[in-house]
Amino acid sequence: MNRREMLALSGALAAATIAGCTGDGQSSAETETETTTTATATTDAPTETPNDEPPTGEPSVDDERLAALAAGNAEFALDLHKQVASEQGGNQFLSPYSISVALAMTYAGARGKTREQMEATLRYTLGEDVHPAFADLRAALEERETARAPIDGGEADAFRLAVANALWGREGFAFSDAFLDSLESNYGAGLRRADFAGEPDGERERINEWVADQTEGRIEDLLPAGSVTPDTALVLTNAIYFMAQWAHTFDSEDTEDGTFTALDGSESTVPLMRQELKANYADFPSAQAVELPYVGRDVSMVLLLPDEGEFESFEQSLTASRLFGVFEEMRERIGDVVLPRFEFETEVQLSEALSDLGMPAAFGPDADFGGMTEGDGSGLAIDEVFHKSFVSVDEEGTEAAAATGVVVESSLPPSWGELRFDRPFLFCIRDRPTDAILFYGRVVDAGAAQGDE
């Protein structure tokens, strides 16, 4: 049974609210297509006249630690989205949650300047409390792994949300017990030993199989060929999978071909879904927003439609506080939503984007991950951060998946470039344990020092 059949069959049991943006539970790249998630909404009754300035807000969750985590993650999400979009263009779909969790596990072993840069770039404002905060968030998400059907209170087949973390460490490598304990207790990421030295490609395939299994086969080959080598010390992975039916499904008989105008002004014919519904809606300067709930009412998709010709300026000016302001501003209204069906994947390597955002030290020869090891941690650095995601939206609902892999390698020491002995030089031969100078000499004419040639 495919996803659409599964959602359609279980739809009769369900009523009502995750998100391209994750909602707060209020009740009422490379692409395979060139369509994007835009919608038109028209209301039957006038809405409030927009103010000159966009609304601002903050996370509504009562827990202070979770609120700080949500605010920081939203800031990082928008920072990273803008950076990747500027680098790659086209349709983009990332999981800031997946990326932030994988890097938080890495951050647990960072020290010094490396830690400071990661903290600022990833918008971690809680210090060491960021790890128990992620544990609290993981526990909250686990409570929503399934939704309850409104008729009999049983699990609704039309909703699934699952997250998983794993740590893959080189056989024989001396990881710090404190580091491993933190990842196990806060992220559920127990250590899995891997023969990176002897079978690097086989271990890469093993990690990819784990990712595929956690994402129902939607994310395959997260780690490309050559990404795991005998120098790999550690791979930290996160996977997230989501599938849910709309609270109010679109009638496929109302779907008609229509024109979508792309960012560059080109036009294409795409299937446009349509329905009239009661939903949270807001009209504010330069954009409109509508929230489409999924089964269970804890998760929703928030769609933002900038005014015509304003997409790029609105995208660049959107901040976390303004995004939360949108969530707060929305009120229940009745209107029509016209939304294209779409499905695409994004695959990106994030080392350049993350370095540009402010954490280059983690990728360089001076990286300090001393908290990961029993020794001083010198020689460890992030080689690459791999991220891959998938999204599909149709009349029945949404399927989304993403995975992140942080590959940590035993880095080479700093390079001095080329040291060219093509002029007079001194040399000695020493006994290292005793520092005894056994021989000492100089070469001032290499041409006269060619033996008996």
What does this structure look like?
- The structure is a single chain.
- The protein has ten helices and 16 strands.
- The N and C termini lie far apart (81 Å).
- It has helices spanning 3-10, 64-88, 96-107, 112-121, 130-142, 177-187, 200-214, 311-317, 320-329, 351-357; strands at residues 40-43, 147-148, 155-156, 159-170, 191-194, 232-245, 256-261, 267-284, 287-293, 300-306, 331-340, 342-349, 380-393, 397-410, 425-431, 436-443.
- Residues 3-50 have low confidence and may be disordered.
- The protein has 453 residues and is an alpha+beta fold.
- The chain has a domain at 3-29 and 49-246 and 341-410: Antithrombin, Chain I, domain 2, CATH 3.30.497.10.
- The strands form four sheets. Strands 1, 7, 8, 9, 10 and 11 form a six-stranded antiparallel β-sheet that branches. Strands 5-4-6-14-13-12 form a six-stranded mixed β-sheet, with helices on both faces.
Supply Rg. 26 Å
Taking pLDDT < 50 over at least 5 consecutive residues as the criterion, the unreliable ranges are: 3-50
Name the helicity range: 25-40%
What's the helix-strand series?
Answer: HEHHHHEEEHEHEEEEEHHEEHEEEE
What's a quick, concise take on this entry?
This protein has 453 residues and is α+β, with helices and mostly antiparallel strands. The chain has a domain at 3-29 and 49-246 and 341-410: Antithrombin, subunit I, domain 2 (Antithrombin, Chain I, domain 2).
Pick out its properties:
single chain; 453 residues; alpha+beta; six-stranded antiparallel sheet; elongated; disordered N terminus
